[in-house]
Write a structure and sequence with these properties.
The structure holds 2 protein chains of 2 kinds.
Chain A lengths: L1 H34 L14 H7 L1 H6 L11 H4 L4 H5 L3 H5 L15 H12 L10 H4 L4 H4 L18 H4 L3 H6 L4 E2 L9 H4 L34 E2 L1 H5 L10 E2 L10 H6 L26 H4 L5 E2 L8
Antiparallel strand pairs in A: 1-3, 2-4
Chain B lengths: L11 H18 L5 H8 L6 H4 L18 E2 L2 E18 L1 H7 L5 E13 L10 E9 L4 E10 L3 E14 L26 E14 L5 E22 L1 E25 L2 E14 L2 E4 L4 E2 L5 E2 L29 E8 L2 E14 L5 E27 L4 E28 L2 E26 L8 E30 L2 E16 L4 E18 L2 E12 L10 E14 L2 E14 L6 E17 L2 E15 L2 E3 L9 E2 L2 H5 L4 E3 L3 E14 L5 E13 L1 E2 L12 E5 L2 E9 L2 E14 L11 E13 L1
Antiparallel strand pairs in B: 1-2, 2-3, 2-36, 3-4, 4-5, 5-6, 6-7, 7-8, 8-9, 9-10, 9-11, 10-15, 11-14, 12-13, 14-16, 15-16, 16-17, 17-18, 18-19, 19-20, 20-21, 21-22, 22-23, 23-24, 24-25, 25-26, 26-30, 27-29, 28-29, 30-31, 30-32, 31-33, 31-34, 33-35, 34-35, 35-36
Classes of the chains: A mainly alpha, B mainly beta.
Chain lengths: 309, 750
């Protein structure tokens, strides 16, 4: 009940804050909207060319040499453009003596407008980005990427993984600090090894293997099977039935510190469940300390229906 | 990493050789890129279609190099190499230190990087950009190399090689916890499932003509995991086995992207994955002797308290009782080969005004074959009188997987969008095997195996699941500051298996979301998902689930960021005799203050409360103090005692870090990280202890770097790792440790 009340209070609070902030900043926002000039024009005369931009924006131009977007210049026999491909036609901006409201400014644009500009070119690999949890939350392309001040060459990220992801997913940072964790902080893995921040057809932006197995099986290939004797929840419910994905206080990232307790959650006699209950000869006071001492091949087996070998 | 660029007037020969060597080293080491990255690269630089036919010419990136730039062969080059080593000094449990840290003393290649950017990209022959970096070579548990290079619109290559040592020896896991009252008392001090394996993973991705209407992608992944480990096998007693771990997967990808219309791309991918499992098993050791001197293993469960492997395993002379459960020899081979070809067709389009669509169709049909299974047991199982058994046979399994996904987003008005996503997922996994087992009986370990009986047992199993999910969401951009969304998801799952089970599950979800941007610097998101299902596959699969997520990020200044998250998931399967309840309530905050290049501070705090309880039934003689009477269905099944299955793990995390550059040539870093859990659980086994469920893991650190000369920097790094458990040790070895790791390095950047 308390959770429900808390949950109900949060949106009310947020709406209140939003309305309040809206009243205070609407002028600012409208102004910002006005500063984001149209990024498209079909009139060639509206474009001034990157050389003109370099006249004032020399620093940006220099850094741009190592930027993948500089390849735009290679288009059309070396007659492609660069600055104005993203910032829109610059003629009005130049003629006004550098009026910032006469050019498209990503930082001042709404997330959707900024995304729209990037997705003009990147839509084929980030299809329907606005549908994803990031897009829906107003996390725009420029939240994570910076064309001019990227800290990570790969993909022009504002910061390297995982720090970039931690900047919002503060809970993930705590999870990866637990005694048993996937080696993300150590630099061996990246968040994007398992998640596609631009969206997938899976929950939690999860990737999957080529054959639509769990993404875990890319590294933990021995668990992928297929096996004659499958441990069914692995295939129907997923690895997270028994393991935490990021970090855990328990060895092997198990969801419980006691293997027997973990197994008994499902393997207890009960009506309407197919998982067999623990046999009566499994006397918990005797040597059956951990189920996996005997049931070693718990992820699946071709030779033993009880996962002994 | 300190990087200084200078023009070096010396002959370039030596440096060129070194440059090429470094590149060759990285290439030889392997490399890669993930498929996503490659596909992203494929679309990195398509010009704006609306402009490309009319835009004026742009300069050819002919920005003149700065005086300090290192130009060689037409490339602006930055390199750095960091050599040094660790001095590791630890006390306490070496096994757990190696499990969690595993940094050892010795010289290391700590870091290496090379960036090459063509001064005139149109004049570069092989590539116009190349970047590579590596760390952790010459003995660290984790070694990584990255290599990316591209040539304009011709190709884009991304590669990586990753090697990591998986040392695992947390002694409570799978430990039989021998009662100290046993005579003799032979505790098991290490985990019987100790691992010391190495995984090497290579990813290579090449995209040809990334900017063209038709581009091609090629990928290769090699993943090999090998090394020694322990396992166990129950035949009368639990023998400790040496498990020589070796499995390898090779995966190939070929794909084509065709921009069929201005805003429509169709992609085809072909994947082939080949898995080879060659892990073998054998007895880890023969620790005892029979009266005739024959070596024998009694396994890891040697306790007079529970009378294993028999009531009196050793005779007065110290020889093994020949009627005890014991192993004389054991080996097992199960070479497994799995070939999985998959095809995928994807498309995305925004050519229809106000609509955006994307979808895919994937078909995969994998076959796994175990052709020469061979298992030989020689020993004695007193319950059955088995003296020896030989099992041979084969198995074959298929996994046929079909996926179909279609997403349609309709921009109804400039502020209202409706999205429908339909997902279809169907897999079936039929498998057969046939094993021939020849069992010999005997009266003792000293008696020869006799009376062979051979049986051949075929079996057929399958598990199938068909899932259909439809998610419909309407989003409304109420203002430029607020977006609201609400939706409904219906999911149908049907699970069937060879046991005749037919399990339909219908889920109904309510989905809502709010995204606020009260100011351009402040973002707040709040999402709620609630689910009800009419059935559950397992006892812990939720029939009710609520998930609340609140995330906020506030950046009042470019140098100041506050962020926080509340993530609460409540789930239950509270049907009779199960009463499963669980929650995961996480609250976390973070802030970053970075006003200038001279100093910065980073602070984080997190609390995560993980709780679950499920009625668990078991038998125990005697019952543990916490046992209660089990439900009737359990009593009828011969498991008369019940536990609440209580598990509670409240975890707190805190970190503080700072960076200080008092003057240009001196750099200081320091900080402290701690993760502490004070949990508890209902113990069925009276010898079980909470172990890591009551633990504190803290690691303060300090780093110092000074530029000692032009291009040269000296670095010192100190990390302290302290792991301590608050619960009793239990009948095993202690697990606490403290480790000091000093790292000294010299960095040369040029």
């Amino acid at each position: 009940m308390r959770t429900w009340l808390s949950a109900a209070a949060i949106p009310v609070l947020l709406i209140g804050l939003s309305v309040s902030a809206s009243a205070q900043t609407s002028g600012t926002i409208k102004s910002h909207a006005a500063t984001s000039s149209s990024a498209k024009s079909d009139n060639p005369a509206d474009y001034v060319g990157s050389e003109t931009c370099t006249t004032c924006h020399a620093d940006e131009a220099k850094k741009f040499d190592s930027n993948p977007h500089s390849k735009l210049a290679l288009e059309h026999g070396g007659k492609g453009n660069t600055c104005e491909s993203c910032h829109g036609p610059g003629k009005a901006h130049v003629e006004s003596g550098g009026d910032a409201t006469k050019i498209f400014q990503f930082a001042k644009a709404t997330p959707k407008a900024a995304d729209s500009q990037c997705l003009t070119c990147h839509e084929d690999t980030h299809a329907n980005f606005e549908r994803t949890s990031h897009g829906a939350a107003g996390v725009s392309c420029i939240t994570c990427h910076s064309s001019h001040n990227a800290k990570s060459d790969a993909n022009l990220l504002k910061a390297a993984e995982p720090q970039l992801c931690y900047s919002c997913h503060t809970d993930a940072k705590a999870a990866f600090a637990q005694p048993f964790h996937h080696k993300v902080n150590e630099g061996l893995m990246k968040c994007s090894d398992c998640h596609n921040p631009h969206g997938t057809f899976e929950d939690k932006l999860l990737k999957s293997s080529a054959d639509q197995n769990a993404v875990c099986t890319k590294c933990h290939a021995e668990t992928a099977g297929p096996f004659v004797y499958e441990h069914p929840p692995l295939k129907t419910e997923g690895c997270t039935s028994c393991h935490f994905a990021h970090g855990s206080p328990n060895p092997r990232l198990l969801t419980r510190n006691n293997v027997n307790s973990l197994c008994l959650q499902c393997h207890t006699a009960s009506v309407n469940f197919t998982a067999p209950g623990t046999p009566s000869f499994h006397n918990q006071a005797n040597q059956y300390q951990a189920c996996t001492v005997c049931h070693t091949q718990i992820h699946g087996s071709n030779a033993s229906s009880i996962f002994f070998k | 990493m300190i990087s200084t660029s200078v023009t070096l007037p010396l002959s370039s020969c030596f440096r060129s050789a070194r440059l090429i060597s470094a590149m060759a080293l990285c290439l030889a080491a392997g490399t890669t890129a993930n498929a996503q990255a490659a596909s992203q690269a494929a679309s990195t630089t398509t010009p704006q279609p609306g402009n490309k036919a009319v835009a004026p010419a742009a300069p050819d990136n002919d920005t003149p190099p700065a005086p300090g730039d290192n130009i060689r062969f037409g490339y602006m080059i930055h390199q750095s190499l960091e050599l040094g080593g660790h001095i590791a000094d630890y006390s306490g449990s070496g096994a757990v230190y190696d499990t969690m840290v595993n940094l050892q003393s010795g010289p290391r290649i700590l870091n290496q990087s090379l960036d090459m950017h063509a001064v005139h990209p149109s004049h570069a022959m092989l590539f116009d950009t190349l970047t590579t970096s590596s760390f952790g070579y010459a003995g660290d548990p984790n070694s990584v190399s990255l290599l990316n290079f591209s040539k304009g619109r011709v190709y884009d290559f991304r590669g990586s090689f990753r090697r990591d040592r998986q040392y695992f020896d947390y002694d409570l896991l799978d430990n039989p916890l021998i009662p100290p009252a046993s005579t003799p008392f032979i505790p098991v001090l290490d985990s019987p499932h100790l691992f010391n394996t190495v995984r090497r993973m290579t990813d290579l991705n090449l995209t040809l003509a990334p900017l063209s209407i038709v581009s091609a992608r090629f990928g290769y992944n090699h993943n090999i995991s090998e090394g020694p480990s322990y396992s166990t096998l129950h035949v009368g007693t639990e023998a400790l086995l040496t498990q020589n771990w070796r499995n390898a997967t090779d995966s190939w990808t070929g794909g084509l992207d065709w921009k069929i219309f201005k805003h429509t791309t169709v992609s085809y991918d072909q994947f082939v994955s080949n898995y080879k499992g060659d892990t073998t098993w054998g007895l880890a050791g023969l620790d005892y002797q029979l009266a005739n001197g024959t070596p024998v293993s009694l396994g890891i469960d040697i306790s007079s308290v529970w009378k294993t492997p028999c009531g009196a395993p050793l005779t007065a002379s110290g020889a093994v009782n020949p009627t005890c459960n014991a192993f004389l020899s054991y080996n097992r081979y199960a070479p497994t080969r799995t070939l999985v070809p998959s095809e995928q067709l994807r498309f995305q389009s925004t050519d229809i005004p106000h609509f955006s669509l994307n979808g895919r169709l994937l078909y995969s049909s994998g076959t796994s074959n175990l052709n020469n299974f061979n298992e030989l047991f020689n020993g004695y199982e007193s319950r059955t009188g088995f003296r020896e058994s030989l099992v041979t046979g084969s198995a074959s399994t298929r996994r046929v997987n079909v996926n179909g996904d279609l997403s349609l987003a309709w921009q109804i008005t400039p502020t209202v969008t409706a999205t429908n996503l339909f997902d279809f997922w169907d897999f079936r996994m039929p498998g057969t095997n046939s094993f021939t087992e020849t069992d010999y009986t005997g009266t003792s370990l000293l008696a020869p195996p006799s009376n062979p009986v051979t049986t051949t047992t075929p079996d057929y199993q399958f598990i199938n699941q068909k899932t259909k999910t439809n998610t419909f969401i309407v989003a409304w951009d109420a203002t430029s500051l607020a977006r609201f969304s609400i939706g409904y998801r219906y999911r149908s799952r049907i699970i069937t298996d060879a046991g005749g089970d037919f399990i339909p599950i219908h889920e109904n979800w309510g989905i809502s979301g709010m995204a606020f941007r009260p100011t351009p610097q402040w973002r707040v998101n709040f999402d709620v998902d609630a689910m009800y299902a009419d059935n559950a596959f397992t006892r812990i699969s939720p029939r009710h689930m609520e998930h609340y997520r609140l995330r906020s990020s506030y950046k009042p200044q470019s140098w100041l960021t506050f962020s926080g998250a509340v993530n609460i998931r409540e789930a239950s399967d509270n049907v009779q005799t199960v009463n499963h309840l669980e929650h995961n309530r996480s609250y976390s905050l973070g802030s970053s203050i970075s006003p200038n290049e001279k100093w910065s501070i980073d602070m984080n705090y997190g609390y995560d409360g993980v709780y679950s309880s499920t009625i668990e039934c078991y038998t125990s003689t005697p019952p543990p103090p916490t046992a209660t009477t089990a439900p009737d269905v359990c009593v009828a099944a011969g498991t008369p005692y019940a536990s609440t299955g209580y598990y509670n793990a409240p975890t707190q995390f805190g970190s503080f870090g700072f960076m200080l550059t008092p003057e240009k040539r001196i750099h200081l870093n320091g900080g402290y990280r701690v993760s502490a859990v004070n949990g508890n659980s209902d113990m069925i086994n009276i010898r079980q202890v909470n172990g890591s469920l009551q633990s504190v893991y803290q690691s303060p650190y300090a780093r110092f770097a000074v530029d000692i000369a032009k291009n040269w920097a000296w670095k010192a790094d100190y990390n302290y790792h302290d792991y301590g458990e608050g619960s009793p040790i239990g009948p095993t070895a202690p697990r606490n440790f403290r480790g000091n790791i000093y790292t000294l390095a010299v960095n040369y950047s040029f």
